[in-house]
Amino acid sequence: MSETVRIVLNGDEREVPAEATLAAALLGLGLMRFRNSVQGEPRAPLCGMGACQECRVTVDGRMHVRSCMTPCREGLRVETDQP
Amino acid sequence: MVGSWCLHGVGTVDSRCFCGRAVPVVRANFDVVIAGAGIVGAACALELTRAGLSVAIADPAFPGAGATAAGMGHVVVMQDSEPQFRLTSWSRRLWQALAPELPAEAEYSPCGTLWVAADEEELAAARRLRDDASARGLSAELLDPAGLAEAEPQLRPGLSGGLLIPQDAVVYAPAVARWMIRSAVAQGAVFRPGVAVDSMRDGRAKLSDWTAWSAGALINAAGMGAARLTRGLPIQPRKGHLVITDRAPGFLHHQVVELGYTKSVQALTSDSVAFNLSPRPTGQVLIGSSRQSGVDTEAVDRPILEAMLRRAFSFMPALRELSAIRCWTGLRAATPDKLPLIGPHPELAGVWIAAGHEGLGITTALGTARLLAAQLTGRVPEIPAEPYLPARQTVMGRELNHE
Which B residues in the span 49-78 are in contact with A, Cβ-Cβ below 8 Å? Predict the structure, then answer.
């Protein structure tokens, strides 16, 4: 079993694999709606390699961070369901 | 019976093709033909259709495809000259009156303009503008540094103050142009997208698809294309750049412009940039502005873009945290005296001009349409038409008849 770190997802503390990307970790937690399109439709990772921009979330207060390019770290604050 | 028609299908004016055969009769006689479906041409189309005239419009692309889509959609009262003030303040009232009719996609947002004073000299200018506005019965509120920071928290500290003009607004101009054309067509106007007016004179407009329209009044509202269509018009390109960011709801609340903008605009010959931001209803931020005279290429100019962004960052460092997702350019149609050309051509009978609106075309489109409609129908216009007539001394002879 690999090591885990704790992140804060939308206010709730969650345990995720330490070596995962944030996108993989969030998918592993069952998250389907990473962000919303202009029309309010759900968006989630498509390419998983930094190109498509669909997996953006707010990380430590910074908007539009690509979760697929962000390694999980202890204490990361993540907000989803935003623009 | 199909055999009696030619297959070219052109030459609709005489119901006869160049090959000599008859073609199906398509309406080709109108009271008014308009070249250009930018915000100005579209506003004229709607105004004249509503005035009961038969109208045909052609545009080489689609409504709002030119400078209309390269502006910030700022509806703003400017006080650089009395005629400019009259046209912009009257037009702003017309926008306010039109707003309830506009569809949601027009994104009319009465967010106001926040003019930012970087130093005491600009704050003194803000005071003068406030006094001028008050004397003219317009709302204008002087803000101290604390008030400025409260109005736009992302502005850097250390600015001298600001001037809030609460009645200014922002619209998404291409959507307005599209709606105006659609509304005019719903009331009987004819619109041909993808068709340019190649020439207009002697009551006849020749179109790029080899057809022609005839009309009592031919209106040249072709923006930067106006000088090609009517040779000798005193119109020069002033290129501008825009950048749009990712969505950041709540980041920006007003159209925010540095007071130094006026200096930038007035530098007629040199390149200039100014801090100018527009909040989009999506939460995106539109970043401007730049002015380059005599440049008619549409490619993004990296040094100018960089200077423009540096200027913006110097007022609002937090902009650096946003991602730019697109940048593009457009050509403003500028005249020597910074007023548009609205009215009859001084020499060509039946040709009317509605062009040369430079950076104020979105604001002044509505006033332009009303002025032109008044002149065309023999009504007394709400404001004097003289300062904008193409025959005026300040532009006549400057470059008119130059070619």
Answer: none
